[in-house]
Amino acid sequence: MGCAASKSSTATVDYYRPPPSSFAVFDINAIDEPWVKAEQRQQENQEKPTHVPAVILEKLNALEAAPHSWDEVSKALEDFKPAINKPQAPTSPPKPAEQLTENQPPKSLTFHTIEELDAKLSSKPDANELGKTESMEKEKKTTITELKKNSEPRVSAQPVASKLKDNIFIVKDREEREKEGRMANYDKIMTRRDPLSEFPEICPPGGNNTVVIYTTSLRGVRRTFEDCNKVRGLLEVQRVVFDERDVSLHGEFLSELRELLGDEASVPRVFVKGRYLGGAEAVSELNETGKLGKILSLGRLERGVGRLACGGCGGARFVPCVECGGSCKVAAVSTGDKWERCGKCNENGLIHCPTCL
After folding, report:
1. pLDDT band for position 131 (cuts 50, 70, 90)
2. Pairing state of beta strands 350-352 and 318-320?
3. How far apart are CA 190 and CA 176, in angstroms?
4. Are 248 and 317 in contact (CB under 8 A)?
């Protein structure tokens, strides 16, 4: 169906023509097969020129077995050695003095006879000539000295060290060495001397050779309780044995502290071998600077856990009284109806731990 024009247009279309993308876009003749390359290499190797003479090549090709070493090659080419090593031409003898060329100029002589030579040698220079030569030499010396002065670099007017030991670099080096020596001697002196000599001498009872701290276990004031725990922890980290005196457990400890410090009788307070270190702030500052460890190590204090390992009190240093059971009251001996104050315990009904004391 359709018109004739449409049929004629469809008849001219070539349905069997491949698309343009299927055509080869490269030159097949530009491909080099491996066998073609091998033939080209053989031709190039054959066409390489040789620098060996043809006579020697014919001699080597005529041999039955090909030489492998240089000695074998030299033996095979012994016939050619005289031809290669040409004899040296004999050196011509030196020509006599008579056969010199005529172009050479004759030697000029300043005298003709021996008598004239003797006369010249025996003659002395005049006094005027000597004066002229001396003056010329003096002028030359003066000019040379002036040139030297001008050529020398000008030095600024600064004080120059007259001796080597006065050199500024040597002086600075000497001062630094002396300073280092003084610092080393100072460190030695500091290590030898008692580190506790800087602190005031305030010794609590029985604290000549140990560490004594006054603390409290009551939590009435939070900051005071935390400071006591902080000081106790610093000493425990240093692994030193200390005598903790809790003022809340025993009233005599508080009276001791008041006698030692007066108005400053607050806790915590630290004493080391009869020297007063201070409160929580002073001890923490010593610990941050590293002086606390040096003081405890150079003080030769007892190391270990101390009373904290006690199985009776566990480091509290006090236990309930056995007589009154911690009530501070006992029955009177005369009359059983009345009660008396227990004389063995303190105000809190506690006694010193018999195990750790």
Report:
1. low
2. antiparallel
3. 21
4. no
| pTM of structure | 0.46
**pLDDT tens digits, residue range 267-324?**
999 999 999 999 999 999 999 999 999 899 888 888 887 777 787 888 788 999 988 8
211-215 and 242-246 strand pairing: parallel
Burial-class residue 168 by CB neighbours within 10 Å (0-12, 13-18, 19+): exposed
Which CA distances in Å does 280 have to 33, 123, 232? 95, 115, 10
Q: What is the 3-state secondary structure (H, E, C) of the chain?
A: CCCHHHHHHHHCCCCCCCCHHHCCCCCHHHCCCHHHHHHHHHHHHHHCCCCCCHHHHHHHHHCCCCCCCHHHHHHHCHHHHHHHCCCCCCCCCCCCHHHCCCCCCCCCCCCCCHHHHHHHHHCCCCHHHHHHHHHHHHHHHHHHHHHHHHHCCCCCCCCCCCCHHHCHHHHHHHHHHHHHHHHHHHHHHHHHCCHHHHCCECCCCCCCCCEEEEECCCCCCHHHHHHHHHHHHHHHHCCECEEEEECCCCHHHHHHHHHHHHHHCCCCEEEECCEEEECHHHHHHHHHHCHHHHHHHHCCCCECCHHHHCCCCCCCCEEECCCCCCCCEEECCCCCCCEEECCCCCCCCEEECCCCC
pLDDT digits (tens, 9 = 90+) for 229-240: 999 999 999 999
> How far is it, in rounded angstroms, from Cα 249 to Cα 317?
9
Pick from 266, 307, 305, 272: which is nearest to 287 by CA?
272
* Residues 225 and 219: beta-carbon distance below 8 Å: yes
Measured in whole angstroms, the distance separating CA 338 from the mean position of its chain's CA atoms is: 84
Query: Is residue 351 a contact partner of residue 321, using CB atoms and an 8 Å limit?
Result: yes
For residues 268 and 227, the answer to whether their CB atoms sit within 8 Å is yes
| Structure confidence by residue, pLDDT tens digits, 139-152 | 777 777 776 666 65
